[in-house]
Amino acid sequence: MTQFKFDDSNIKWQQLGDFEHFRVAILNIDENKKTIDALFKFDANKQIVLHRHMVLNKTFVVAGEHRLYLPNGELKEVRPVGSYKICPPDVEPHREGGGDNGAIVFFNIQGDDLLYEILDDDQNVLGTLTLNDAIALYDAAA
Question: What span, in angstroms and rounded, lies between the C-alpha atoms of 142 and 126?
């Protein structure tokens, strides 16, 4: 079977605040259904900020290898290209990142207000990401 390489050169990647090691491209927001479709591009062998998913996330690894880490930085799970996961809200925080070649992951995020909590290393809440924050980021890219 033919191998394909995902070309993301036409995607308008955005930085989310001051957060490092990933970029996001919000593809669509359906405010009636409270659903966001987005691509996340994770840097190779780096971990993003500690966070907690407060709503349902469905993910599909488009390119590379999606890695999940425990709060202490220990590798928890590796999702190879083509992996699809349904991830309900989870009180257990984690970090994410890309494998040796980074990762591009499609996220379908379903929630009506609070999407993610951003945490420090002691798991104190530093901030949140809401549906309104995502809408503002989407509008800024237009």
Answer: 28
Distance in angstroms (rounded) separating the CA atoms of residues 36 and 119: 22
- Residues forming a β-bridge with 65: 80
Q: Which residues contact 72 (CB under 8 A, 6 or more apart)?
A: none
Entry pTM = 0.95
Q: What is the pLDDT of residues 41-77, one digit of tens each?
A: 999 999 999 999 999 999 999 999 999 999 999 999 9
For the chain, list the domains and their CATH numbers.
22-141 (2.60.120.10)
Gap between the Cα atoms of 105 and 71, Å rounded: 21
